[in-house]
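S1.2 Input.
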Amino acid sequence: MHRRWLFIGIGTVAVIGAGVAIWVLLVSPQTLTICPSGCAFAQLQKAIDAARSGSTLHIQAGTYREDLQISKPVQIVGSEGARLEGQITITKTENVSIMALTVHGSVRIEESRKITISKSTISGSQNAGIAVVRSREVSLSETMITGNAGDGIAVESSQVQISQNTIGGNKGYGIRADSASQLSGEGNRSGSRVPDDFPTIQAAIDAWHVGMGINGLGDVSENVPPGLLVGEGVIFVAPGVYKEFVTIRDKNVRIRGASRDEVIIDGTGLGDVDGITVRGQSKVFLENLTVRNFRDDGIDAEGKIELTLRNVLLEGNGSTGAEIAHSDIKVWLTRVEIKNNRNYGLWALSPQNIIECRETTVSQNGTDFGALNEASAAEIAQKCQ
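S1.3 Output.
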């Protein structure tokens, strides 16, 4: 009798063990791959819906045009070239992470906890780049948040750690928070870097949102701890020769090179183009760089523009070093050298275009001053001494 009871017990245990194994298999986390073709999933939302709690979703290179709703614990990991065009909404969940994903749109985190966004790019939102509402233990790190129509980061009644991010060129505040929020972190910059954040100067300019003020790019609201976001809203350009022509239209932007001798915008072989073209209604501050060897003008400004050049060399351009081609343009020059340009050095409609000129030389050009009579040219030269 005792042996029979033992036999039944072992069988029961075997059945139970098999059932447990099946249950574990059904609920254990998965690793899912999403790609435009050839994978089990071609859409992110379908993969999220199918994923078990705690699963990891690997997104391969490609552009995914969809809005995402996340309400379960998942880890989303992007590959190089993975780009989402749409909005991500994370709501009423926990333990969600997004890493190494480019999002052309917004991320909204609401009534959630233990949410992490890292090593990603958030840009092009029509509202805030990242909005955090009534959430706890949210971490934003090593992410570029730029070119959004609202705030870079907007926080409401939430606890958020913000560290080592680049936050600049957003139309609202860089970081905004209400009095019910708790923010912490360090090492956040309000500028962008070329080529670390953007491969070209033009790409960095394109991400700078229309309507931003030069001195307002790094602003934070009154409830943000002092020093959480530092910098001047500058596009920093690392040493190198940049074979590109640049267009700035209806934007307020400051471009700062590492040094005039090390940051060269070079037009050799680019055809009949200007080096830096400024149009529309813009405030542009250029410093510590050289513009050379363009077949047309080094700098061509036309519109209602405030243009400041500091420690800039304009050299060897095929037409004009700097062409100031509108009566509404105001120019400030400090430690500028304009030389060896084929036709003109500085072409301006009147001395009134040049508001200030200090420690600046215009020499060895085909004609140093264009569109000016001798007396007007002498007036500008006197300002520049």
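S1.4 Remarks. The chain has a mean pLDDT of 89.
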